[in-house]
TrEMBL record, chain A:
Transmembrane annotation, as ranges: 32-49, 61-80, 110-133, 181-200, 230-250, 262-278, 285-305, 311-331
MF GO annotations: transmembrane transporter activity
UniProt GO cellular component terms: plasma membrane
Reported function: Part of the ABC transporter complex LsrABCD involved in autoinducer 2 (AI-2) import. Probably responsible for the translocation of the substrate across the membrane.
Key words of the record: Cell inner membrane, Cell membrane, Membrane, Transmembrane, Transmembrane helix, Transport
Compartments reported by the entry: Cell membrane
Name under which the protein is recorded: Autoinducer 2 import system permease protein LsrC
Subunit (UniProt): The complex is composed of two ATP-binding proteins (LsrA), two transmembrane proteins (LsrC and LsrD) and a solute-binding protein (LsrB).
Pfam families: BPD_transp_2 (PF02653)
Keyword Membrane in record: yes
PANTHER family registered for this protein in UniProt: ABC TRANSPORTER PERMEASE PROTEIN YPHD-RELATED-RELATED, AUTOINDUCER 2 IMPORT SYSTEM PERMEASE PROTEIN LSRC
UniProtKB/TrEMBL annotation, chain B:
UniProt KW Transferase keyword: no
SMART domains: AAA (SM00382)
UniProt keyword Nucleotide-binding present: yes
Subcellular compartments: Cell membrane
One GO cellular component term: plasma membrane
Residues in ABC transporter domain copies: 7-243, 250-497
Membrane spanning residue stretches: none
Pfam (any one): ABC_tran
Matches recorded under InterPro entries: AAA+_ATPase, ABC_carbohydrate_import_ATPase, ABC_transporter-like_ATP-bd, ABC_transporter-like_CS, P-loop_NTPase
CDD domains registered for this protein in UniProt: ABC_Carb_Monos_I (cd03216), ABC_Carb_Monos_II (cd03215)
Protein name: Sugar ABC transporter ATP-binding protein
GO molecular function, one term: ATP binding
Amino acid sequence: MTVTAQPPAPAVGPDKAGGTRLVDRVFKLRELAILLVFLVMIGVTQAGNTEFLSEQGIKDLLLNATILVLVATGQALVVITRNVDLSVGSTLGITAFAAGDFLHAGGNSVVAIVLAVALGVGCGLLNGALVSLGQVPALVVTLGTLYVIRGIDSIWVGSRQITASDLPGGYVDFGSGGISAVPYLALIALAVLIAVAYYLRHFGGGRELYALGSNPEAARLAGIPVRRRILAAYTACGALAGLAGALYLARFGNVDSATGNGYELTVVSAVVVGGVAFTGGSGSVYGAALGALLLTSINSVLPALGVSSVWVLAINGVLLVLAIAVDRVVALRVAEALKKRAAFNRRSGRHG
Amino acid sequence: MREPPVLAVEGLDKSFGAVRALHGVSLQLHAGEAHALAGENGAGKSTLIKTLAGVHRPDAGTVLIDGEPVTLHGPADARDAGIAVIYQEPTLFPDLSVAENIFMGRQPRRSLGRIDHKAVKAAAAALFARLGVDLDPEQPARGLSIADQQIVEIAKALSFDARVLIMDEPTAALTGSEVARLFAVVRTLREQGSAILFISHRLEEIFGLCQRVTTLRDGALIASEPVEGLTEDDLVRRMVGRDLDELYPKQATDIGAVALSVRRLTREGVFTDVSFDVRRGEIVGLAGLVGAGRSEVARAVFGIDRRDAGTVEVDGRALVNGAPSAAMAAGLALVPEDRRAQGLVMGMSIERNIGLTGLRTTARAGLMDRRAERSRSLDWAVKLQVKYARIADAVGTLSGGNQQKVVLAKWLATGPRVLIVDEPTRGIDVGTKAEVHRLLSGLAADGVAVLMISSDLPEILGMADRVLVMHEGRLTAEIPRTEATEESVMAAATGRAA
């Protein structure tokens, strides 16, 4: 249908784009805020310990963050769709061991990484299929697969262990090497991060993840293939956990049946601290990555400041609660502002 | 010979379990025609719409587009066939921008399949210009008024050149001027050759906007006829299958002592200096435009929101600020505006929903007495003539009108001395509406003080002994029944009163 007739244009409200700017600012602010906290923390630490930001210090910071950034990126994809994947720790553990086992048997390094990613894809497909077809809460389903995958890992691995001496020297060197202070692993994570962020912003499939997280019923009515998208998000999350597993092996060279135990909680914390809302539909993978960077840096900052590392967990927890509180307050403020604006427009007769 | 209808259905059957939602329904929609779909709640209107939208697959019967039978496998098929549906509750993505909402799944692309964000924004702006509305394409959908959300939905329909626009009770939550704007847009679309299928419980809207009307009752087709020559009574008779008794059965009552006394009630930035009394046996109507602060006053009186200043007394005893349980104990009951979100637990049974207000009174030694709960719930469900299969059925399976009766039952079971009802008949059919009115009238006759918030002017004028009017957070008028007219109430509601 075409409308050519022009009904009289209504009066324009004076603060036409006020809400947009406000909301835009808030969401950009959310990521800037974490970056700021991170920089302040690093600055304070550097002031207290000038050795902290040495070449090796920076390298350690980045290396520590790499694995978590990768897994958090994948997790963010899932959380944006209003779901969660608790099995990423188990996936990371089993893929790391599989890659190690393969290398130990004399396999090619590239093939080992591909193998880990493929195994991760398998785990992701399993989760995605259960969540999207079963219509069961993701929290419960992935809690189940967390134990299933960990169980299979334990049966298969038993008391075996992969150590750096089992691995080809090139693989371990790759894990610790880099271009001056920037490790290769961090470059990989950065590349993945940028690619995923670009996909989410500029491709239909990416926007649809936000849409179905924002309002699942509306997504279905808009003809978005909801199940396929959820399956895709889980598959990508599994693939990234698999890649993280391979890189974990390269970084630490030490894998057993307990590798990645409890990792899912750190990942979820990073995502939430990074401003990806658990209610779906908002946040960015950059935020999740910053959250990961912030959380892992605390591990390095405390010893550098001479604080016992027993504080790490408590501080992580405080950060998490703080992040949620900030998000909540900001959401309320934004809602209030939007409401006031709507009321103002109504009063000024915009609909007259 | 007319052209074949743009959209038609023939012999449509659809059942959900044992419930036959539609049987043998046929309907023809022609280009350039606004067609009303009338019927009580539960008559099958929503099922018919969802079938046309590709959400439900019919058990039997055909859907024809331009005279050709088609199968709609899903919402995307219906959209591709040029059918746009605007649901009662707009289906937007609150986190995404207005422009993204319009083009979700169909964004203009540039190289490599990437979304052309600039084109999306420009196209949305162009659509709003064509509709003559002022909306910012980059604004998030969250925080838009219902009226603006509907405009976004219409823009979405325009964006894929929909030839059929189906609107499910679009005016239920709109103010007068918003309805006028919506109708202006709809009339323009119709003149451009679109077919409109329009559902509304407001008969005057059907008569004001539509050329044809199809009436459903209990899932069956009753009539499909031109609106011209029909009277409102004819239409109501087709919908309910019987003559309605008087729609506003207001009984004369003995008005007694003051039961609810509100003095200088203020909530910063929401409403200011609101004072009024409600006496035993009296129904006081609270009128005003949407957003005037009426529901907010009710919430503060009941203690859901804290009041910043002022007092609330029930039977002369002051209520503690911000304590709904104290209000309940004092004999106050509030039937909220939004029954889905505030009044009921949709997944819970009728029995349990009614039982919620009696968790303390029906418990023995702190444990629930299931038998007492059931008999209390049954008692009230029967008194209010709730139509259900089993009392253990989830409330979500009932029609809107019956859900509203369950909310009423839930609160009446507390034996309130003061009853506040917020939009008691919004979105429910004429038959049930009359029952609710008779019920309220009967309660007043029994000495209950009733405060009725309503945006339905005939309802206010028909039911209230006294009309209070709010405008922008202030009480602007108090009009006795004999002097209350549409003009006097609207003048006060829009702030034009002297």
